User: What shape does this take?
Amino acid sequence: MSTATTASVSTHILDTSIGRPAEGVAISLAARGGPGARWEALGGSRTDGDGRCKNLPALPEGTTQVRLDFETEAYFISGKEAVSKKEAEAQQDAPRARDSGVFFPEVAITFAVTPGEHYHVPLLLNPFGYSVYRGS
Assistant: This one.
């Protein structure tokens, strides 16, 4: 794969258990030129205080599939999500107690891309579930 960008990717993470961005989550990016092609690790970054990862590497020319790997275990173990836990517990729908284990130690999202388009892929995360969608 060459280094020309054909599509772009961005992401952010919201910890839905506390209603706040997930800060400090490591994210790695890989790309390939189609089903069955070898994944090329492109690098990664960490989410900022707003849960955004603004400096992901550019996608190489010929990329048709992208994989984002979110290292969620370190986030939950670090206790960063607990900073606003008391505030979250005051909310009607927030959990009153959390399990000490990490059910999803990582989240891997694979999606198809088209040259020239931007793909924003938010991750809605909590200790026992997650959801993703194509944002704008």
Remarks:
- The first helix runs from residue 72 to 78.
- DSSP finds two helices and ten strands in the chain.
